[in-house]
Every structure is written in C-alpha cells, then in structure tokens.
Specification:
Layout (H helix, E strand, L loop, with lengths): L4 H14 L2 E2 L7 E2 L4 H10 L15
Antiparallel strand pairs: 1-2
Amino acid sequence: MNMTVQQAAPLRGRLINKGMVWSGEYGEAAFTVPLFDEYLRREVSAPAYPPRKNADPWRG
C-alpha cells in the first residue's frame, strides 16, 4: 500500500478500535469482517474515476 509504519499505525489503531481488525500478537493483525481483505484489494486496485459534473441526484 506504499505506506510507512508511521503512516499505517494510526489507521491500524482505528480499525482495531472499530472492531474490524483483531490483533492477537505483536505485529500480527486479522480482519474480523469476512472477505474484507479481498474487498480492500479490489478497492485499492480499482481505477479512480473523476467525479461527475452534475452529482445532484435531483437533477439527474
């Protein structure tokens, strides 16, 4: 994910606090949500599309 340990640590902590990640041992982590790791891999590798010019749902 191209992050340093210092950048990833706060994110890891927030995921643990939310209950999405479980850490049993030092340096180990596991997702508590089934298939969440596969979802993240898909999202990270997905192309970023520019936002639509008219994002107002009432105007179409």
